[in-house]
Amino acid sequence: MVIEFVLDGRSKVNTYMQLVQQVRQALRVGLLESGDQLPKVRDVAQALAINPNTVLKAYRQLEMEGLAEGRPGVGTFVTGTLAGASLMHQAELRADLVGWLRRAQTAGLTADDIVALVDTTIRATLADDVIVVTHT
Fold it and tell me: Could you list the pLDDT tens digit for every one of the 136 residues in the chain?
């Protein structure tokens, strides 16, 4: 699987951390698996119009977390996972969520409205759990 990075220019999260968070999310939902190659630094930098050092910093952060490994002359590869036992239930839940998102759009909610609704609902419902919600 190839991850396609997207940057949110309105986010207060540093660019390199946005990349790190997107890899973490892809690992958590099973879109990336151990052995998958991350996009080449040069390709990411060109596609997002950012400095290659920013991509390198993100990849180094993933290496420090034990989630990736750089292989000189070859690229950076996923070496860890964040997918837990819940992964097997995610496909059905995702299908439900897609249906819900379509209903929300039909009801006139914008993407920002949906994000606000989801964020506040997560905070209110799962207050005892530590959850970090990030958006791209």
Answer: 678 999 988 889 999 999 999 999 999 888 898 999 999 999 999 999 999 999 999 999 999 999 999 999 999 999 987 776 676 777 788 888 899 999 999 999 998 899 888 888 888 887 665 545 555 4
Residues 67 and 105 in one domain: no
Residue 71 domain boundaries: 15-78
Q: Are strands 68-71 and 75-78 parallel, antiparallel or unpaired?
A: antiparallel
The pTM for the full model equals: 0.71
Give a yes or no: residue 134 inside a domain: no
**Looking at the structure, do residues 58 and 33 belong to the same domain, yes or no?**
yes
Other Cβ atoms less than 10 A from the Cβ of 97: the count is: 12
- Domain with 27 in it: what CATH number? 1.10.10.10
